[in-house]
């Protein structure tokens, strides 16, 4: 995908999160999500940390060549690889979000930070590389990783928010392309999965059915593709 498309997708992904949370009151921000132990405000804080990481990374140019791309990046974080670390992060995020006087405080900082990250992305060198989490990525690939995480967590935010808007089509397309890359070239997802179902199954948010396993064959053993 081109840099312009990746920037557009990130802008759409972060705007989608904002549209979900912007008008929520303190009670709604304490509704459950699909992430174990996290309410909406907790998960939004996790996303806020990602947007802050984006600002740091985009201001941290690195010499190339890249050592990973937007798909192989996720292979460094296989599903269930370190449950203790995941539990520690989940607990840290809960305590950090709870430190705000009110849950809406997280929303205010997100509303300032996410657009700033998108502007920084638009100003980055499309041919350049950046460093994050021990890897060097091309800028467009880095933006794709941010978009994929935002789309997956957008879907995590909304199960108990029936009026929330879905993520935008461009952002979803980037996340789907990531799952396609992780799945392999010779495996086709089941025909009855739409994009959002695919993302739910690929990230372990939705369990594979017997029919799914039959359609996927040997590839069923690779699920979830990421956590």
Concise synopsis of the structure shown:
By secondary structure, this protein is mainly alpha-helical. The protein has 8 helices and 3 strands; from the N terminus they run H-H-E-H-H-E-E-H-H-H-H. The chain has one domain: dinb family like domain (Four Helix Bundle (Hemerythrin (Met), subunit A), Up-down Bundle), CATH 1.20.120.450.
Structure report:
There is one protein chain. The chain is mostly helical. It has one domain (3-222): dinb family like domain (Four Helix Bundle (Hemerythrin (Met), subunit A)), CATH 1.20.120. The protein has helices spanning 3-21, 40-58, 83-98, 104-123, 139-157, 169-183, 195-202, 210-216; strands at residues 61-62, 129-132, 135-138. It has a three-stranded antiparallel β-sheet with strand order 1-2-3. A hairpin with a 2-residue loop joins β2 and β3. α1 (3-21) runs antiparallel to α4 (104-123), α2 packs across α3 (83-98) and α6 crosses α7 (195-202). The longest helix has 20 residues, at 104-123. The two termini are 24 Å apart.
- Average per-residue pLDDT, rounded, comes to 93
Terminal CA distance reads 24 Å
- Supply the CATH architecture: Up-down Bundle
Main sheet properties? 3 strands, antiparallel
Global geometry: globular
Number of strands: 3
Low-confidence stretches: none
How many structural domains does the protein architecture include?
1
CATH superfamily: dinb family like domain
CATH topology-level fold name: Four Helix Bundle (Hemerythrin (Met), subunit A)
User: Can you count the helices?
Assistant: 8
- How would you classify the helix and strand content by structural class? mainly alpha
Strand content: under 5%
Strand arrangement across the biggest beta sheet: 1-2-3
Q: What order do the SSEs take from the amino end to the carboxyl end, as H and E?
A: HHEHHEEHHHH
Radius of gyration: 17 Å
CATH class: Mainly Alpha
Helix content: 40-55%
């Amino acid at each position: 995908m081109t840099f312009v498309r990746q920037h557009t997708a990130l802008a759409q992904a972060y705007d989608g999160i904002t549209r979900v949370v912007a008008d929520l009151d303190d009670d709604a921000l304490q509704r459950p999500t699909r992430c174990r132990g996290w309410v909406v405000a907790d998960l939004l804080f996790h996303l806020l940390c990602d947007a802050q990481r984006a600002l740091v990374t985009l201001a941290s140019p690195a010499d190339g060549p890249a050592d990973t791309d937007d798909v192989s990046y996720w292979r460094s974080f296989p599903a269930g690889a370190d449950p203790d670390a995941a539990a520690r992060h989940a607990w840290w995020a809960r305590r950090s979000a709870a430190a705000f006087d009110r849950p809406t405080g997280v929303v205010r900082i997100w509303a300032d930070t996410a657009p700033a990250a998108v502007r920084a992305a638009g100003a980055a060198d499309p041919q350049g590389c950046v460093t994050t989490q021990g890897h060097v990525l091309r800028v467009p690939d880095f933006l794709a990783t941010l978009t994929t995480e935002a789309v997956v967590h957008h879907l995590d935010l909304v199960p108990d928010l029936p009026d929330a808007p879905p993520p935008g089509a461009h952002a979803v397309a980037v996340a789907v392309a990531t799952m396609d890359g992780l799945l392999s070239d010779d495996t086709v997802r089941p025909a009855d999965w739409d994009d959002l179902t695919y993302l739910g199954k690929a990230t372990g948010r939705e369990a594979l059915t017997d029919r799914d396993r039959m359609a996927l064959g040997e590839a069923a053993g690779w699920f979830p593709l990421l956590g």
